[in-house]
Design brief:
The complex is a heterodimer of chains A (195) and B (308). With 195 residues, chain A is an alpha+beta fold. Chain A has one domain: Sufe protein. Chain: A, CATH 3.90.1010. Chain A is built from four helices and three strands, in the order ααβββαα. Chain A has a three-stranded antiparallel β-sheet. With 308 residues, chain B is an alpha+beta fold. In chain B, 29% of the residues lie in helices and 25% in strands. Chain B has seven helices and 15 strands. An eight-stranded antiparallel β-sheet of chain B has the order 1-2-6-7-10-13-14-15, with helices on one face. A three-stranded antiparallel β-sheet of chain B has the order 3-5-4, covered by helices on one side. Classes of the chains: A alpha+beta (195), B alpha+beta (308).
């Protein structure tokens, strides 16, 4: 039975949506961010992860009408990412009035270098993610206790830069390593997301 | 692994349901709790954008700008896009624009405040064709006044986002009102054991599943009695009592279980097969129908196409 080419796969659509929302996202619980920050300054436990940017303000203030951000930097084709020229900002439609929701309309990574750690049942991996011009320009695996060879996931750092996302494909027969790598990059990117 | 594995349990109420998170980890609860807080935060965020029970939510604010494009959050845009795609794939049997009809039928009470929402919207008019999305501009336009009921997609999405927030933990189970994402292994070291409730015999399981790295969502008339409507007739569907879908994401499982429920046994099964997910369809008398994937012996279910 041929796959219906007109209708997209809903599973794939949902996966893309989840990633876009998560990276764009906006955490409402400021207490949680403070807790994570407190745990980070102690930095004793491997799971005391470093704070992301503080959650933005409450829903009381209407969202300013912002030009639409470039959509997660999709369309970056260069490896070792030169940040793409930002798309021309389109003026908002006149009636795009403030919808009073504090949800961000797009991701904005703060320039800098961020570390992340991902765990799996077969070991942990640590990554360093560099952001320049609000785009991911470099991803490096800095340390690994994975029980599998690192070469299995050697292609994933470049894929992160290409996709501007932590959500790379799982490498066949390297499920745990891929999972840990994704978690590590996600964690690093969470720190990079600006409020 | 020689370190003891405990299931740390956390719960909150959000999106009119009990949200229950289990994290299996040797880490102390204090190290886990902040991540769970952030996971719970995602439920609040999704609710803030998508609930039709709060006139000030992002989706309900659209009613103030009928006929004009409105800047929408990525979240609302993606949820609406997904719901509209479900509508297209079910030829409108599933349609998120039936919110006003649901209000009229009495599904209109905000669980947090007890207030009844009443929108000044004609319940008989409009369809998903009257909602336009412009992804490039990031806008949603209602061509006529419409109350969007995004519940079939939003809860699944919230579970997926919570799962992302807990991504550092390989063994978690996030459950909200019977829908869940289960990753890794339960405290016993086995996969997570998930039961599908029999539609008519309380406490009896029609089927049980062993789940690792998948989402399981059920649509049915258990709690609300005939709440699932065929949008084309505005009538409650009767063919099936419930549909349970196993998929890589809860957003897809949630949406597809509702869509299959509305379509009925034959077209519902066809949709699930075409979308490459597995499902259990229950008739009111308990008769079970399964997608072909169940014919393959697989003691532990991972969603097809998921990282396994």
């Amino acid at each position: 039975m041929a796959k219906d080419r007109i209708h997209p796969g809903l599973v794939a659509l949902s996966a893309t949506a989840i990633t876009a929302i998560y990276v764009a996202g906006y955490m409402r619980t400021q207490a949680a961010d403070a807790s994570i920050a407190a745990a980070a300054s102690a930095a004793s436990s491997p799971t005391a992860l470093v704070a992301p940017a503080a959650a933005p303000g409450t829903t009381a203030a209407p969202t300013p009408v912002l030009p639409r951000r470039g959509d997660n930097g999709q369309g970056v084709t260069s490896r070792r990412g030169v940040p793409p020229t930002p798309p021309p900002t389109t003026p908002p439609a006149p009636a795009a009035a403030a919808v009073p929701s504090a949800a961000q309309s797009g991701p904005s990574y703060k320039d800098g270098t961020y570390t992340g750690q991902g765990s799996s049942r077969r070991g942990d991996v640590w990554v360093s993610v560099t952001v320049a011009g609000s785009h991911i320009t470099d991803v490096t695996i800095t340390r690994s206790t994975l029980q599998y060879p690192l070469r299995d996931i050697a292609g994933l750092p470049d894929e992160v830069v290409q996709r501007q996302s932590a959500q790379v494909d799982t490498v066949s027969r390297a499920t745990y390593s891929s999972q840990a790598f994704r978690s590590a990059v996600s964690q690093a990117l969470t720190k990079a997301v600006q409020s | 692994m020689s370190t003891p594995r405990l299931a740390h349990e956390f719960a909150t109420v959000s999106m009119d349901t009990l949200v229950h998170i289990q994290v299996v980890s040797a880490a102390p609860r204090e190290a886990i709790a902040p991540h769970v807080e952030r996971a719970f935060g995602w439920f609040s965020t999704v609710e803030r954008s998508c609930t039709r029970f709060d006139p000030t939510s992002e989706v309900m604010q659209l009613l103030h700008h009928v006929g004009r494009p409105v800047q929408a959050s990525t979240l609302l845009l993606e949820v609406a896009a997904f719901a509209l795609e479900l509508a297209a794939q079910t030829d409108g049997a599933f349609d998120p624009t039936i919110g006003a009809t649901l209000e009229q039928l009495g599904y209109a009470t905000d669980y947090r405040t007890g207030q009844v929402v009443h929108s000044d919207v004609d319940p008989g008019a409009g369809s998903f064709h009257d909602v336009r999305l412009d992804r490039a501009a990031g806008t949603i336009t209602l061509l006529r006044p419409l109350v969007l009921d995004l519940n079939a997609v939003a809860k699944g999405l919230a579970i997926d986002l919570a799962a992302q927030a807990l991504g550092v933990f390989p063994d978690v189970c996030i459950e909200a009102g019977g829908d869940l994402v289960a990753r890794g292994h339960s405290p016993s070291g086995e996969a997570w054991h998930v039961g599908i409730q029999h539609p008519r015999a309380a406490g009896l399981l029609a089927r049980s599943l062993w789940i690792s790295d998948a989402a399981v969502c059920t649509s049915g008339d258990y709690e609300r009695g005939g709440h699932v409507l065929d949008a084309r007739t505005r009538q409650a569907v009767r063919d099936l009592a419930s549909v349970t879908v196993i998929a890589p994401t809860a957003m897809a499982a949630d949406g597809l279980s509702t869509a299959a429920m509305v379509l009925g046994r034959d077209r519902g099964l066809a949709l699930l097969e075409q979308q490459g997910v597995d499902g259990v369809l229950l008739e009111p008398d308990g008769t079970v129908h399964l997608t072909r994937g169940f014919a393959v012996p697989a003691p532990v279910r991972r969603a097809r196409g998921a990282a396994s």
